[in-house]
Design a protein that fits this description.
heterodimer; A: 400 residues; alpha/beta; Peroxisomal Thiolase, Chain A, domain 1; twelve-stranded mixed beta sheet; three-stranded mixed beta sheet; 12 helices; 17 strands; B: 273 residues; alpha+beta; 36% helix
Chain lengths: 400, 273
């Protein structure tokens, strides 16, 4: 593919609001996970909650969008000057030429969960202040973002569980290649809700302690929430030649496991196909990759499948880590959060470590980083895999 | 110059109230058969392994049915050549996930016993039908799953065309919607299940039915002449595709509009083969 410029980025997770907070936490090897005290949830697990989400107030004309997921969406858009960069892009390209591609797994379903506690005792009806379209529906965060910026063009939500906001980069890249848009707001937002907390617990996939990706004794995920965005633009325009050191999207690769709804292919076959497709798309070989941000959810099966796929393709030559010990698994936001972490690795010259992981799994022969370290990566790869066997790998690089 | 958003239409699937398959839908849209409203009948997905077949929900049956009908017409028949259908990239586009499953989860999470079933949980993801498609067909090709509320068909079409034109990959678009039970039904009154499958290819083949070229427009879709079909077009997001199927059924070239995301709509120029 033709490289695309990430002209602005931002991320908000339990590590903090924005790039500076994310950067310092990764450098310090700090985790944002804490014992679960979310809402009325009673589960022995750790979560990555973003502080202050419910203090966020939506503009009055957009009040129907009010829910935890759209509050976090707005909070992240208004961080690191991202919204201002979007408005500048709209001024450059036009309201109909900036597309929206956002990933989520559960959008504002928490709103529905809460509304079900307030059903009319006679009729069973949901309360009148419940708005399905603008909160629960998977499109709500994309429609909110479209209305927030007054955009009039293309918008879609992508919802492939935990690969959602990696796949938005591929979808946006296609439309930019076609010229049907000139810029794209890509990203992902997922917020804590009962469906995912009790759901992953029902599958016995949540850990009773902070998650330990790629640890020999890993025993499950820590669910997090987060929002991350990037503004994607074509990098080859005369007026838009990327400055040296700018971060570029170089390749995208998508595949399906065709294996099981909630377990990965045991040999990581789908994961391998996605990484190979991303390398082809970027015109790079395995030797060109200097760091891999692993999906690394810390379930025994997920890390084993991914680890085997990475070892089969890259051997133990490439430094790898999962940052979910720091952020928790932000589900549909994970692809975008980790894309931004990859962008930081490229611009800062720092490979993040893996808080929570103490002893690498000896059965997974890859160069897994327990501690972060300075480096000068030129090309980094990020993996995101989801339920239903949905896989996506992205490759980022720096402009020479 | 930007490449046009164009593709060759190789196969069609249709399942909607009173329209059990594409041949029936075609006859109705041509005015050769009177439209008679009956609730959508979902076929049992014979291609799923027995364990998954038992768990298959209405959306899964719906998506598999329209996808397989379109793929078979495009010559990618599962029964004859499993390898073919597995080569198709897929774009699933739906305005919601499995409504009955969602209702059951929300009801239980509002009760004193929040220990939800793991199967209910993994079936709650928006890409459940896509996951079952992969398990059923063995397709390891890229699989996209989109939601754009009422604009879901248009959003799916745009991404499918992106894969056809940019990646030069034959792509199966499966747009489908199902109903919520009460009390969610009152907030999102999709009346029944319906879906449309379209196989879109980058190059003309002997099976090509028509060439389509999509452009943005501010114009709105022309209402369908049949009032019952027009009601369906408005009520079920996937059936925003009906103007395209209507023109295809008539075998007439020309352009039409499908509603997408106001003010952006999609003008489709159709040239039959």
């Amino acid at each position: 593919m033709t490289p695309l410029l990430l002209s602005a980025t931002t991320a908000t997770t339990c590590l903090g609001r924005g790039l500076a907070a994310t950067r310092s936490a990764l450098r310090e090897g700090r985790s944002g996970l804490a014992p679960c005290a979310f809402e009325t949830v009673e589960l022995a697990t750790w979560i990555g909650e973003v502080p202050g989400v419910d203090n966020e107030r939506l503009p009055a004309p957009l009040a129907a969008y009010d829910c935890r997921n759209n509050r976090l969406t707005q909070m992240a858009l208004e961080t690191d000057g991202f919204a201002e960069r979007v408005r500048q892009a709209i001024a450059r390209h036009g309201r109909d030429r900036v597309g929206i591609f956002l990933g989520t797994s559960t959008a504002g379903i928490l709103q529905t969960e809460l509304a079900y506690r307030r059903r009319d005792p006679q009729t069973g009806a949901l309360p009148a202040d419940f708005h399905y379209r603008t909160t629960h529906n998977s499109f709500s965060l994309a429609e909110f973002t479209r209305d927030y910026f007054g955009l009039t063009g293309m918008a879609m939500a992508i919802s492939t569980a935990c690969s959602s906001s990696a796949k938005v980069f591929a979808a946006a890249a296609r439309q930019l290649a076609l010229g049907s848009i000139d810029a794209a707001i890509v990203g992902g937002v997922d917020t804590l809700c009962l469906t995912t907390l009790y759901g992953f617990a029902s599958l016995q996939l949540t850990s009773p302690q902070p998650c330990r990706p790629y640890d020999a004794e890993r025993d499950g995920i820590s669910i997090g929430e987060g929002a991350a965005f990037a503004l994607l633009e074509r990098a080859d325009g005369v007026a838009n030649t990327p400055a040296a050191g700018s971060v570029l999207l170089l390749g995208t690769g998508e595949s399906s496991d065709a294996y099981h709804m909630s377990s990965p292919h045991p040999e990581g076959l789908g994961a391998r196909l996605a990484m190979q497709a991303a390398l082809r798309s970027a015109g790079l070989g395995t030797a060109d990759i200097d760091y891999i941000n692993l999906h690394g959810t810390a379930t025994p099966a997920n890390d084993a499948a991914e680890g085997k796929a990475v070892a089969a393709l890259f051997g133990d030559r490439v430094p790898c880590s999962s940052t979910k010990g720091a952020t928790g698994h932000t589900l549909g936001a994970a692809g975008a959060v980790e894309a931004v972490i990859c962008a930081l690795a490229l611009t800062d010259g720092f490979l993040p470590g893996s808080p929570g992981t103490h002893r690498r799994d000896p059965a997974l022969p890859i160069d897994y980083l327990l501690q972060g370290r300075p480096a000068h990566p030129r090309h980094v790869l990020s993996n995101s895999f989801g339920f239903g066997g949905s896989n996506c790998s992205l490759i980022f690089g720096v402009a020479p | 110059m930007n490449p046009p958003l164009t593709a060759w239409l190789e196969g069609v699937g249709c399942l909607a109230p009173g329209l059990p398959d594409w041949p029936t839908a075609r006859a109705v849209l041509r005015g050769e058969q009177v439209y008679a409203h009956v609730p959508t009948v979902l076929p049992a997905p014979a291609i799923l392994p027995p364990a998954e077949r038992r768990r298959a929900s209405r959306v899964v049956k719906l998506a598999l049915a329209v996808g397989l009908e379109a793929a078979a017409q495009a010559g990618a028949d599962v029964a004859q050549a499993g390898a073919d259908v597995a080569q198709l990239a897929t774009v699933f586009s739906a305005s919601g996930a499995d409504g009955h499953n969602c209702h059951a989860l929300c009801e239980q999470l509002a009760s004193d016993d929040r220990q939800i079933s793991p199967t209910r949980f993994h079936n709650s993801v928006h890409n459940a039908a896509a996951g079952y498609w992969g398990i059923a067909t063995g397709a390891m090709a890229p699989c996209q799953v989109i939601c754009a509320y009422d604009a879901s068909f248009g959003a799916g079409l745009l991404d499918a065309l992106g894969q056809v034109v940019v990646d030069r990959q034959t792509t199966l678009l499966i747009a489908y919607d199902s109903e919520y039970p009460e009390p969610l039904f009152a907030t999102r009154p999709v009346p029944d299940c319906a879906g449309i499958g379209l196989v879109l290819a980058p190059d003309r083949t002997p099976r090509s039915l028509a060439q389509i070229t999509v452009r943005p427009t501010a114009a709105v879709a022309e209402p369908l002449a049949d009032a019952a079909l027009e009601t369906l077009r408005i009520a079920i997001p996937a059936l925003r595709a009906l103007p395209l199927l209507h023109r295809l059924a008539l075998g007439e070239g020309g352009s039409l509009v499908v509603d997408y995301l106001p003010p952006m709509q999609l003008s489709i120029a159709l040239q039959p083969c």
